[in-house]
## 1
Amino acid sequence: MALQYTAYTALLLFTTCLNIFLAWNIWKRRGISGSIYLFFIILAASLWSFTGALELASTSIGSKIFWGKISYIGITTVAPLWFLFTVTYSKNQLKVKRQHIILLLIIPALTTLLAFTNEMHGLVWPGFGYLETSAGLIIIYKHGVAAITSSIYSYALMIMGLIVIGQNLFREPSIYKQRGFLMVLAALIPLLSNLIYALGVSPFYFDPTPLALTLTGILVFWSLFHYKLFDLVPPAYETLFSNMKSGVMVLDLNGTIVDVNGSAQNLIGVAASSVGENVGDQLDIWDEIRPHEDRIDGKIELELQKSENVFLEIRYNQIYTERIPSGWLYIFEDISDRKIAEKALKKSEAHYRTIFENTGTAILILESDATISLANAEFQELTGFKIHDVENKMKILDFISEKDKNTVINYHHLRRSPHGLAPRNYEFSFKNVEGKIKHALATVSVIADTDKSVASLMDITELKETERALKESEKKYREFADMLPQTVFETNKNGNITFFNEHAFKMFGYSPEDLNNGLNILEIINENDRQRSIDKFDKISQGDLSGDEYTAKHADGSRFPIILHSTPIYHNRENKGFRGIIVDISEIKDVEKQLTKSLKEKEVLLQEIHHRVKNNMQIISSFLSLQAGYTESPEAKAVLRDSQNRVKTMAIIHEKLYMVDDFTRLEVSDYLQNMVQSIVNSYSPAPESIELEMSLENVFMNLETALPLGLLVNEMVSNSMKHAFPRSHGKITMNFRSNGGKYVLKVKDDGVGFPEDFNPFKSDSLGFQLIKNLVKQIEGSLEIKNQEGAEFIIEFRELEYKERINNINSVPV
């Protein structure tokens, strides 16, 4: 194909290359709002300038017309794309929908179609003119109805785009105004160039618009790289609008949704397709958040009932364009977390307020200057001051007694110093509302990240009184213990002595320093007794509180006997040690030795006395027996024999006492059995003819009871032997037993019994007189039966021992 080359053709090709370069740079920024439209603008301009260059370079009329038709693709789309760019890029940020783009491109598409089919109707070019110039053949186009209509449409869109840019130009900061002027100039150059060409006043025979677009490309390039066309407000606005966590919705004055970001769509459920729709039809909560007629802004908190309750803070402001209301801006903030936090905070405040009021101690919050900013009811109870008279009106120093003020204020300031070495717990005294001095234990800590401190005050007035009373009691206890002539001691659970009275130091020869060095209780006991002492302490813990004798060890090594009494010290049911007394029994042991020696001597003496008394009674009994042998009178013989038996009865007791170690009590059964047998032997020439049946309980009795009891048995058995058995044979039964603190003695024979007219209680015989007097002597009762023989029943108690030796010196223990 033959071509013709001109300088204008080269310039258009250069413009095409420049525009392609610009389009490539803009394509790299295609994510920025409006950049895609600018990309297609530059691409359309490139097509326009490239087809224009090829049209000039073509040498045939057909080729020129062909490239002229193709150029209409660029010519008709520049203006709509320009309008879309200005609307999208401007601060109005109007949402452009797909249907809007289609509507804007209908006329350009129809015009282009008509251009390609111009031969059929001539609506675009009804005719052509030809001109031969130094640059070659040039076609002069005559524009038809379709071309004129397309031009008017394009001019209108260009002008509207300029208006949009102009509006933003006056609202932009000065730093962006130069960029705006360049954009206006870039749009005016091709617009004016094409307008001059269309009016036929151009000095050139060809359309200079593609050449003008070269200058537009240069200006856009300068704006792109020097003023960073896509790096400032519109991209920032789009990025901010799209990525805001807060939901944003823009409305016009009629309530039509102009724009809504993704966060608002998620929060209030308005879809992106709702743009252009009435907000009342799309938003269920509109009636609750619609602007008030008399207000231009407002804030509303609203709870949305969803699967989980969502709390929104909704703020609205009226939008002004050149000081004229043009719409409403709504911002939706999800405050669910804040509401939950507030609820948790209120719950926590209630929780801690409950704790604050129910700790059982007075609680204060102190400011840095010691002002009481908060106090609980326990503080009012402690001091008597009303809370409303204290909070933010009084300082802690207003309560503290004079002697403790300096200490407390020093602690207060020291606690806030870099070192912060003030004690956390300390005691002080204060005056209550009545002026009475009381005592408190304070626990104070600084609240983290503040200058405030929290103080807990415990009333220890009673404790202080108890301590004072305890110290007084301890003083009295020590003074009392020091007055005692025995050792008073206390140990811990390991046996280390923690207390000695003054007598203890004298008794054992130790000093208070020895106690401080850990003197153990076992160290004052002889080595041979220590294990027994350890075993005894175990028994004491189990309740055995009896005292034991040990050999004590003096500090100088000497030994002496002691009695140790101790009891466990319990605290909270735990054995904490022992306390007790130690008695030096050296003198008692000496007295015991003397008494033992004296007692042994007396025992020997008593045995000798009983032996001699028994021998003397044996002699008396022998004399009576001899005298009976010289007497012919039966009555005299009987009297002598009775007297002899009575003497034998007393002699048997002395014989028993001589043979035993205990002189105070006598085993009665053996004594009575021997005595009865002796009586039977003395009265009967054939003792075996008298059957004795004796059931005697083993009982020990004192001499006061045993001696008259023996005489009673002697008289009753003697009576049976003398009067019951005329044929010299029979049976005597004797039963002796204890019965509930009393004793019962029964003596019975199976002889002839008493005569019917005989009353033993009125008898003046010596035997019955003795029986009655002996029963009276043992304070007993006598019953006599006369059935199948005679029976005596005596019931009595053991007589109390009566001292016969007075003025015996007692030995204290």
## 2
Amino acid sequence: MNLESSKRKLMRALQSIPENELTKHGIIPLLEKLEFKRVEFYGGPTEHGKDIIFWEPQKLGGDRLLVAQVKHYKFSKTASHSNSFQTVVNQLIASLKDRILGIDQFNYQPVEAVLISTYDIDVAVLQTRLGSYDELKNKVRIIDGNELVELFLKHYPEYAEKLLGVSIEIKDKLSDYLTNDILLKAIGFNKSKDLKVIYTDIDFSVGRQSTELFFDTEFKPIDINFTFDEPHFLLLLEDLAILSKEYKLDFIKVNLELLKREYDELKEQNELSEIKKKELRSTLSKIKNSKSYSESKKRNEIDKINLEITKENLNKKKFSATIPIYGSKITNQILQKRKWIEEQVLILNKKKHSRSGLKEFIIKSKKILNNTSLFFTRSYFTQCTGLESKKIHRTNHEKTRFKLPIGQIFDTGENIILLGEAGAGKSTSVQMYALNAADLDDPLVICIPLANTILNWIKNESNLDDDYKITNFSDAISKYLIFKGIKIQPHQFIEYLQTKRLTLLLDGLDEAIKPNPWLTKAIVTLSENYPNCQVVVTSRVSGKYIEEIPFFAVTLLPFTVQQRNTFIKQWFENGEKKFADKVKRHLRLNPELSEVVLSPLLLTTVCVLARNEVDLPITETKLYDDRLRLLTGYYDRVKNIQQRLETTPQDLEMVSRKLAFFLHYNNKREEDKETLMNMAASLLRGKMSANNAKRAVSELIDPCNILVPMTDDGKFGFGHLRFQEHLCAREISQHRGIKIAPLLFQNWWRGTLLLYAQMDNDISWLIEEVGEGETIIGYYETLKSMIQVSPKHEQEGLMTMLKTYFDENQRHKEYYL
């Protein structure tokens, strides 16, 4: 882990401490830890150049007397001011000249002077210049700021930590997360790869799925007169108040102030009527209970009061207002906002920009997109704009493609949600940012794997309710830091959040959300409670929970061909050019594979297969299949390599499928070895003996590395979530008894279902089953995505079938208005 930034920060901290305070509380304890004896402070008006006196034990007995000067400045050649080189020379000569009374009452002359500076100085040059004085020749030892920092870090780290807080410890002990070793091991590559060497910048686009309508829709605006009742009129007023922050309200052609007055007057009349009815009912109750009235008189009075109540009910008026909304006025403004964002992206890509300029763009774009979302969600707006009822998926990102390092977006200090498909490079991007940030003094960047952090927290505090988790999520993070060996208490971490500049990189929202639905609220609450802290969240692109995170959204895009070639070149080491050429040639000759191998995960998998000299696949699912065959020893058998496995490749694959489905079905990524063994024995009862099933699990861990360590407490999983999803998809293909329809509405299963559709599985029966059940509207997006990855010759027929069911169901759908 690169700690240069922390060292620089420590050096500046030492420079900021008054000389005497640093000498007493820093340098003297340091010298004692270095095993010098009788270290004493000697500073003051009679010091004669000596700030410290101390004794160095000799191996053959006796102690040498040394003196030290502590200086808080760089050395100057100008002899005219107090910081001059000549001043230092005079003080050093004086420090060595005067004798000092020892504890044995004998006088001793210092044999060496130590010159300590808190600044970075040219020691060799200074040593040469001092050596030109006979009184100092071979008698001065120099410790400059760099060496002093190293001594503190090595021998007196508690003092360094006191000055730096916990930042240096955090950077050091979280370094093991800033690698892709787990992924590489899961693919079948048992060496480490330096992220800084292989990392390739990935382009990204503005927005999330819910903003795709903003960028992709072609409008067909019309003008409509809507009749609003009271609740919908109030909702419209709320919407217009929000929209007015970014849009002109010229699409509403009525006097809203007049309508609001009419509404208020009517509301007041109705409230007075309710008060009168309440009084009448009270009087009615008294008459009924009165004994002073005759029965006939009581009846007459009751009838009169009931008649009054009836009149009040009949006089009560319901609010209703007809309001024309002009669609063209809305769409013209939306198109202007869209054009502004696209133009700004173009400008930022072409011209050198400042951090403040990029920050201003993010703030304004976020405001535009947040406000505009109302035009795409309220039916009275969508009908006017001519928006199709079916959600449109964005197909072209070029107009909002940022060709900047993603770190520049993070550098703005704005809260960000980083989205991307499986294997798009989300984790690698934040890990790389944390690695680069280690070279900086400020802010402190902490990369936190959400799933493991929450698992560690809940495991040790099982009785926490959701409200507590939402308001105290900082506790989960501090407990994770403690678990990683960092000496920090929860209250200290809260103080850090309140007072320091901090960037939290919360990685893997999609992996943690299903068993922890409170998590989005916890993240938002954390960002609101600690405004000095920047929060960056990563997640896959789909899922309603994403909309609950109100951060500026950017989506990682696939590699361009140039970026892909750069990645391939950097992945292979010197002398491995033949493998790089093999991968590039294979992709060039197989356009279908080339179209999908545009993410770091898939490209890494191809590179590992090439490095293992395996024939390269031609589709994404075949790519994962080949990885599995590589790890289960199939290719070893083909090549007649000596076997290390007792379980056949076929059985290892079967056990992998069963365990992957077990984990996924239970919303998990990892489990302890004993649980996996017992589950394998249970799931494969009748197909394998319990001992063989358990042995297979052991072999999946070693030597196969299909199950890899996922947590510090010894739990195993399949490395990347995409590998688990691939095995689940294979299990669904093999096990026709698994009911797929209930999984369609669960975002956790979306990746698995898309892979299932790629595996030449006929999904027409699934569309028919869901369509006949009148639930296709809620499942439309997932089914449509499954069709888009199905074999091309089947897509047109499946899409026609889906739209037929959708249109039929749409006629029965109840709209909000």
## 3
Amino acid sequence: MIRLNEIKTEVKQAEENFNRNKIIKLKKEAAELVYNLETAKLFKEIFPDLEDHDNQAEFVVEKLAKSLNEDDLYKLMKIYPNNYRISNVHRAILAKSDSLEDLAKLLSAVPKNNYVFHPARSKAVKYVKDLKTARDFKQLFPNLDDYNKEARDIYRKLKNKLNREELIKLSEIFKSQSFNGLDDLLLKKSENIDDVLDTINRYPNFKRYSPDYVRKTAYNFVKDRTSAEKFLAEFTEDNQFTERAKEYLKESPSAKKETFNKQKEINKNSKIKDNSKLDNNNDYKEKNIVDKKLNGEKEKDGYAKMVELESDIISGKRSEITAKKEAVKYVDSFKTADKFHNVFYKSINNNDVDSIINNLKDDLNTTEIKKLITIFSDFPAVSTLIYEYLDRSKNLDQMIKAAKEFKDYKYQATAGRKALKYVNSLDSAVKYKNNFYEYAARSNGPANSQLYEIVKANLNNSKSIDGAIKITKDFRDVFSIIKMREQVISLVNTKDKLLKFVNYYPLENLKIDKVLSQLSKTELFEVAKNFKINKIQSAARQRYFNQSISYLEYRNIINYFPEYKNETVNIVLNSINNIDQAVKAKNAIPELKTEIRKQALDHVDDLYSAKLYNDNFLVNNDKLKVIKKLMKTLSHDDLEKLLDEYKVFTDREKIYRLHQKYHKINEQYIKISSKNTEFNIQGQLKDRSEDVLYLRGRSSPVNAALSTYGTLLDESNIYIINYNQDKLKDNFYLSKGHYLIEKRMGKNYFGQNVPVWIYGDKPEKLSKIEKRLSEINEQINRL
């Protein structure tokens, strides 16, 4: 900074002399001396008319872009707004930005459509974590093209985190974008029939191109009459789902009675229609059963015929074989099938059973199907009926019950596959896993994948570490515990939770620092102070030490972390720059009072600090140390106040006398020494005698400004009288302790007049006053 101020003066002189080469040289030197914002301002002040492409200004901007903090970089932009290297500053700020707010600040500070805009937009995606930050992103970058990469990245990043309503809001924020798969995702995240219908309304083509998928998804939410009416209003074409939905419209007693009366009237008029072509679905089959039972007369006839045939066989009128052929066509209900089995049990074959099952399966209820399976259990054809029984299961419990009744692998596989559609919660996932373990545990299979998504979602949404551990225990026989552990880490934010976490989950490949980063300072300290696992405790201590910035935190380290004690003590002592900080440190860390007292004594330099020292640190041995130190700087009145403060009543006159004598001698010393500056001289030997040395070199003042007379920054002719022979090595001389005697004019080899600077020993009057000052100092020290 001193040299820059000197350059400022020299530049003015060079400008007055129109010395352009000198200015260029000084500018290069000044640019090398710029190291912070203050010196950058001074550089611009010295050279105010810098061109945007000035080499030295570019050098300054490029250099500071690498070292300044973010706030100073913004200030640098204002100093050199149009410099060709200002882009380095923009990029440096971008690199230091770690939030959308930081990026917004940067973009507001640069010209519109600046080159930093696109990398800033790409980086901004990193900080979009929820709907709010997505909205902030859009406000920051409002003009996105229709197929913007960053918008799509945000969608991919958030789509699995957001619920359906939040996804809709996200699409509204980025209304110009067409997110691939959003329609399908909204459908999958639907929670009721209204959600499905809203999705169809938003994406009409979705129903057009995937009608079966949309219809099936909608039907999953048909639970009552109201939802059925909504379903049928949207899906009007006849199929198994619409038929099932219609059944909900018949749930009320009045509706059932109306249906019964209509059917009775139809039967009475012999207008029964063939139902064999109706869609093969569970609920409509129950309707078919009602139709059959309403037509009780036909059932009675079939059973009566079966009784007649049994009588004929017993009486010998017919053989069992011929009677059986006729009897098959009378099997039109469970009752007649049971009778058929009882009559012809000896001659029944698989073809007979197959024929009966195919004729009856659509007309039987589930109870009758189960009984019929039992009746014909010895025949392979019964498998058709078992599959029908599985199809009739309407929820997970029914499917599990059916699977338990039929242990054959092929039935278990079918039940496991069909049961998946009822697995939509954690409880149902547990129930499915416990009953269909083989399919749940099959890696990458549909059941495994579906269950993991449910487990993952519930782990992410767990409100307690205990709940997450319970989920992990329920599924650790199916999924990797390490894989599930990663979903639980975010819950660990206290020591107790960390303890539960490590007590259950393995530490293999665990990123301990990531876990510790979630703890508050207080919780981190508790872990660092005492934890059952040394590896984690050590990591916590290192993290706490690295993050500590207050004296209370340093006290914790000193008292509890012996491995960091010495380093922390040094940090505390080095942080003390004045008496106030010393008092603050002592109050926070009383254990270091002795060490801090020594540091505090160094900062006692006026009456105020002396009083603070007396109140907080003073011991009897320190009183005279403070008095001796301050009597050289305090006024007489302040010295008297100091003696009163320290209760020193003896030798006062002697102290006053020494104080007065010191100040008188010191004033003389200052006056004399200011006129007799010590110089440090260096240069190349040109000639010498026993007492005189002739150099071509430079001189610089010791403890004085460079503007002091006798300073030689450029090589000059120098004579030294009584030089120090030990400092002359290899024809080069370097030594201090020389004082300017005079400047003379001499002649060079060409006979031209040149200045010669003559230096010698310390002046006698300076030596005498220094001796007197040393003597008074000794007298003060002997107090």
## 4
Amino acid sequence: MLIYNREDLSIVDVNPSALALYGYTKEEFLKLTIRDLRPVSEFEKLEQELDKQEKGFNDAGIVSHLRKDGTPIHVRILSSPVKNGDSNLRLVLAQNVTEYVDAKERLENEKEMLTAVTQNLPGTFYVINQEGKILRWNKNLETITGYSSQEIAKSSALIYFDPKDHPRIKKAIAEGFRTGKAELKTNLITKNGDRIPFYFSASTSTLYGEPYLIGLGIDISKQHKAQEQLLQQKMLLDAITQQSESIIFVKDVDGPYKLVNEKFKQDLGFTGQKVIGNTDRNLFETELAKQLIKDDTQVLESGTAKRFEEIIPTVDGSKTYYTVKYPLLDIPGYENSICGIATDITELKEAESKLEELYEKEKREREQLQLINSRLQFLSRINTIFLDAGNTAVETLEKVADVIVEEIADLCSFDLLIDDQLQRVVTRHRDKKKEEIARRIHETNPDMFYSSSFLSEVLSAKKQVFIPEISDQLIDEYLTQPELADQVEALEIESVLIKPLLVQDREIGTMTLLLSGEQTEWVEDASILLDELAYKIALATDHLLVNEELAKLNETLEKKVEQRTEMLEKANKELESFSYSVSHDLRAPLRAIDGYSSLLLEDYYDELDEDGKEFLNIVNEETKRMGELIDDLLSFSRMSRLNKSAARFSMNDLVNECVEEVTASFPDTDPVVEVEELPEVEADSRLLKQVWLNLLNNSFKYCEPGKDPKIYIRSELNEEKQVYIFSIEDKGVGFDMKYADKLFGVFQRLHSDDEFEGTGIGLALVRRIINRHHGKTWADSTPGKGTIIYFSLPVNPHKISQ
């Protein structure tokens, strides 16, 4: 008991029981407040209790207090007000209920634990009374059967089983209550009719004087499947082990074999013998047994799988096996055992050996191919030099020599047969100083094997000379100037190859190679390549020399052409002067003839008979015709001297213009002229206009008498020759094609003047104009059906001129 002041909560009195309960002395207690007895976490609850105490007696229930040493205790608090003058006091009775609270908490914990265990059991938990009614169960029973808790509470345990099994179920329950224990395997039937194999076990327990069966049901369907799978796996493992093409065994290290398959017995010759229980020492020769035990020990000590190639004697002789061995550390009873799988790889090893041989062969072939490729690249570089236009023969040989000393030789020199004498034209060395030494030796030591006289002998024999080893004795023998010995030695010559350069047995010159080190072996292996190289060099050099000779001849020819051109221009000028003179001189007598004949007709018309008048008229007409011939001849002459001025223009516009002009000059006709779409061309429009005027005049003039002209103008592109082909077709009188070669000649006419007028200049002028434009003219005709005149013009005249 304790009394405290309601105003400041200070404790004013305590009894001995309180001192014993809390562990304070009375003096210590009277210095405390009731707040000091409560844990901080319950201060809020204390305030609520104090509020209730204002109303009088209060039962605060069980609260937590703290003893002096900090130990928590549980006390039940009853309080009521105490009258003591003006003081606001309150009496508190505190009953220690710590043991009761602790026991209650333990009970609740045990209950929660029991519930948790029951609910988390792997199967169904149940409590059954003697009537077979289920009184308690876990959630699994509801989940597995599909029945709700209400349905389970109302039903008998028998509803979960097949009626045929009810007698067995009842007997098991009765036996459990009689003996205290019951077991049963049967199918549990769910609400939707599924059958699940279950194992039930229960034992009796008495609660509150009544016996109950408390049991557990386990789903054993997985065990059934597992047993079936285990059996299948064992059968499968046995089948694999016994039918495997590999040897399979289990054995203790340096101990007996525990398992071997038939392949082990067949291959190793133990068929019909006992292997299980024997050791390697019993089965194999001593050295082999020691090696096998050593390998097995290594596997066991490492704790990991290891692979070995083992040569084992078999009934068919020694064979190579690829064996994988691994320890069986985690299998009870096999802690000192290893399992091995050995595969016969004898054929594979033989195949590997053959493959290795093939690889080496392929390697050699690849190296050979690389060598051929490098040689082809070398020849390609040489060919590139030959294809480089603009170089002289000597310039080309210099470039070839540069490639040769870069690729295959220390020194390369070329001598050409010029005016029946070999002359050194090229000398190249990788080292420029040694190049100068080689030149000097050649110039000062003509009798040495590297000299012109020796090369001439090689060329005459038309056979190569290869000296694979140049000895000091050989040098001394050929060296006519001993003071050059040091310089010869400086060249470090090991071998020499001299090849004649021949084109169809015709001597061109020689190629000399000075070699050292691997170059000598290279040359010995590449004789065909060097023959090809020498032939290419000879052929290309011969070609270049011929071209140089032709260039000299062309230069001479060009000078002659220039002289002839100058003479021709001079002759043309003289011809032009002559033409003008002839034209002038011929026109004066023609005018006189025409004038006098006209005067005779005018002044003596009546005195002339009919024949005289006719003769004078013929004189007048022929005089006019002669004048036209002179005019046409001058036009034809001038055409070759006119400057051509090319520009791009529309051929359609030009043709339409010419059609209008020619139609106007034939007013008595009603022509039909069809002009297709014509391309633009680049040409002299003035000259092309003359072409179309002449062609159109002919088409109009040579139409069938009494009929209007029908004319068709077309064009097409010849892509292969890159020319436009123009044509003009008329439906006129035509001509016999056997005279076609005369059609474009000067003064060549295929019809008489009585039939059709003309001078025979028009088509000759057309051909000359088209020729000046790098084109061609031709015709096709059928007498009585018409004529087609064709001419061509280049699409790109600039390419033609170039």
